[in-house]
Specification:
With 263 residues, this protein is an alpha+beta fold. It is 38% helix and 27% strand. The strands form 3 sheets. The chain has a 7-stranded mixed sheet with strand order 3-4-5-6-7-8-9, with helices on both faces. Strands 11-10-12-14-13 form a 5-stranded mixed sheet, sandwiched between helices. Strand 8 and strand 9 form a beta hairpin. The longest helix is centred in the first third of the chain and has 25 residues. The protein is globular, with a radius of gyration of 17 Å.
Length: 263
């Protein structure tokens, strides 16, 4: 078994274990300690403790790998392989009792995302991709939607306090003008996984952090979708825009997004 295959199997296992831990906190939300980092930006003890758990597992299994996470500081590695963690993507949903949140883990090497896992414990779904291999959902191959026009499908639109409100509204307006439905579930990672699984036609967000999007972008790419070519290392440092879609709609989504964001 290759080292990459080993890391993929490890990522799946640790995300499923972390999902069990997160569900315990989710079931006991009345006692959850929650802090506010910014406008509509929350962090709970569940986020911090789940990330600590994942970091400990990485340190035990891959002690020379680097680690980047949403809630704790970066750990420099020696192996040339880095892990990028979002312990709970969709914290706003989590703290409000909405079962739309995920555990996200990506593996990056040579500026490219090589492994991506998104675990949805609420639906018991595990989305997995390894670069150059078929993306899977619970072990079965998955593909993006094919032959579905914008007017017949749904596109997810992300929004956060990192971008200007006036850049978001034209995206929604243009999608509606194209006859599409728009969707936002407050978990960008889950929406990206849904694109890969053929449930959504695309996802558009002006700025995402690496831990929110790297795994999902790889899922979409390996499921036959179109993803902008970006450096994973640059995304880790700075974050950036995310536009993904099926081959049928990507160019239209790119045009819609750029017209809105460059206004």
């Amino acid at each position: 078994m290759s080292r990459l295959s080993e890391r993929k199997d490890f990522a799946v296992a640790v995300c499923e274990e972390a999902g069990v831990l997160a569900q315990r906190y989710f079931a006991d939300r009345g006692n959850l300690v929650v802090d506010q980092k910014g406008a509509q930006d929350w962090v709970s003890e569940a986020d911090r403790n789940v990330e600590t758990f994942i970091r400990q597992r990485i340190a035990e299994a891959w002690p020379k790998d680097g680690v980047f996470g949403e809630e704790h500081g970066a750990v420099a590695g020696e192996s040339g392989f880095d892990w990028v963690i979002d312990p709970i993507d969709g914290t706003t949903n989590f703290v409000n009792g909405i079962p739309a949140w995920t555990i996200v883990l990506a593996g990056v090497t040579e500026g490219k995302t090589a492994v991506g896992v998104i675990r949805d414990p609420n639906a018991d779904e595990t989305f997995v991709a390894t670069r150059g291999e078929v993306a899977t959902l619970n072990g079965s191959p998955m593909r993006v939607a094919s032959g579905v026009a914008l007017r017949d499908g749904t596109v997810a639109v992300g929004y956060s306090n990192r971008v200007k409100t006036r850049h978001v509204l034209p995206v929604v307006e243009n999608l509606i003008e194209h006859g599409a439905m728009f969707h936002r579930n407050a978990s960008g990672a889950l929406s990206l996984a849904y694109v890969a699984a053929g449930r959504l036609l695309g996802y558009v967000e002006e700025h995402m952090n690496a831990w929110d999007c790297l795994a999902g972008q790889l899922l979409v790419a390996e499921a036959g979708g179109v993803v902008e070519d970006q450096s994973a290392d640059a995304m880790i440092r700075e974050g950036g825009r995310v536009i993904v879609g099926t081959p049928d709609v990507f160019e239209t989504l790119l045009e819609i997004a750029e017209n809105a964001w460059n206004a």
